[in-house]
Amino acid sequence: MNVIELLSVAWQGILSNRLRSALTVLGILIGIASVITLIGIGEGAKQEAEKQVQSLGVNLIYIRPGQVSSMGISMGQGNAPTLTYDDAVAIRENCPAVKEVAAQYSQSFQVQYGEKNTMTQVNATEPNYPDIRNFYADRGRFFTKRELDDAARVCIIGDTVANDLIGEGNPVGKQLLIRGELFDVIGVMEKKGMTQGMDMDDQIFIPLSTGYATLFGLNQVTGKTVRNILAQSKDGEDWQAQFQITNLLRLRHNIQNPEEDDFMVRTQVDIMQTAQSITGVFSLLLGATAGISLLVGGIGIMNIMLVSVTERTREIGVRKALGAKHNQILAQFVIEAVLISMTGGILGILLGVSGSHFISNIAQWPTVVTPISIILSVCVSLAIGLFFGIYPAKKAAMLDPIVALRSE
Amino acid sequence: MSNVIELKDVWRIYNEEAEEPVYALQGVSLSIRHGEYSAIVGTSGSGKSTLMNIIGCLDRPTRGTYMLDGIDIENRTDDELASIRNKTVGFVFQQFNLLGSMSALKNVMLPLVYAGIPGKERKIRAELALKEVGLENRMHHRPNELSGGQQQRVAIARAIVNKPSILLADEPTGALDSTTASEIMDLFGRLVKEGMTVILVTHDPETASRANRIIKVRDGKILEDIAMGTVS
What we know:
The structure holds 2 protein chains of 2 kinds. Chain A is of the alpha+beta class. Chain A folds into 2 domains: about 5-50 and about 275-405, no CATH class; about 85-260, no CATH class. In chain A, about 55% of the residues lie in helices and about 20% in strands. In chain A, strands 4-5-12-7-9-8 form a 6-stranded mixed beta barrel. The longest helix of chain A has about 45 residues, at about 270-310. In chain B, the strands form 2 sheets. Chain B has a 6-stranded mixed sheet with strand order 6-7-8-3-9-10, sandwiched between helices. A 4-stranded antiparallel sheet of chain B has the order 2-1-4-5, with helices on one face. Chain B has helices at about 50-55, 80-90, 105-115, 120-130, 150-160, 180-195, 205-210, and strands at about 5-15, 20-35, 35-40, 65-70, 70, 90, 165-170, 195-200, 215-220, 220-225. Chain B is an alpha/beta fold. The interface of A and B includes residues 323 and 405 of A.
């Protein structure tokens, strides 16, 4: 008996009870489809997170104030006024692994243009910000070093701000009021969307010096604090840069015990790893949920195969009387189980792939069906058929032909 | 003529280790020659079914020797017995035992599938066997589309398709009306004339009377062994 004959015998067994076979196939189908879809959702989330981290910039290092605790009471992370403009200057001058530095100070202000006004984030920074963040002016231009030095009253507005305040028409050349101070619009930033929970298009960029002088009320006397410092390491030197910055800031802030750091230095790789560990857990949870439904489907196969063996005891007896050997009966039932699970698997893959597309389209949620998850599904459905089919098939093959022939 | 079946002092004991063993066969010796038409008769519980199971290689003797067509049945594995059944024994059952999901032709092809005969030859031989029993027009019908007599003819075709040494028929007319039963018995008569060794197992004296030799079994022993002479 060759493989094709065994397949055809098993196929006849499946066809002899179509409804039951179809329902069993459905169990596996749903299991595999949910595995493909849910892993697709998880994978989509992972890639989306990676894309967002990548969109932060290239070789980005993010330095922000850490927590200050006074007498053991934490003041919260990131809100301490511990980083200054001088820190940024020192990093630029003293850290050889650092290519670019841009300090940032931001605050929300009321912004007016003609009759319209809006509340938006004013981000005072330095001219190399676009290069570090990989975020450029789309129309007009970003401000220059000269304008920074002169504390020029120029601003570059985000796409959302441009739409809200100016609407149609070119904003470049217009003037608007930020907290009552007049600024020339010299550029509009490109559209970037949400990054790390922040709308990158709803902000206004001005030179840091201008911000200190006109909006924030900070000077040499009060101390020019910054909200954060963005640095860009040279290629492949991100951890050296991180090390140099950390040591420099400890020296400058007079910190001996690393646990008392009043700042945080995180590289893009750190941020990526955090994002990956979160999405990894997410994927695992989704995969496990789907795996359970697959297991239930597998038990369904075993159940049906056991019923089938019992029902077809006489058939097994007849086959044995006519000369079927132990392994031929075994193969017949194992192949039957595998055929059911593989049919479910393949249909499940089709449903899962289209389900993923459906979710992508309807819920605007990115899903990614990887070839690995398809190959894995095929292997898993094969394994399920084998695993849950072997026991009923063994039961069939071990039947005594005399007893089997006598059964009703 | 040589013997196709040779039982010597065959015992079949169930639960031999237990306190009350069941002695289904108690020292049966029996020889059946090639081409003989015999009937094993007895009431239920007489041991005739056990004897049939042993002759058909579905069961093994507890003690004693059994030679089937020159093959010693002692110490054979289940798979070896399956192979011997496939090649040397043709079974006909009271309830026909056709597989309902297959056509008559496929049912008849089944023993050839297990014999490892290639597909084309299988089909030719199955068609010939069905012609032999007069069902050349019913080859593609399923069992439930056939009458009882036709189903039993399919079963007989299935039994003879692999050219067995013996045809073992267990109450072959038990589920049929008398007219159909008679037709089936005529078919057996014809097969005997063509040289087949046929063994009927029955409790019905009328069926048994068609055979040339009647072997009466009671309490696990052969009570009588009567040669009738001519083929009826």
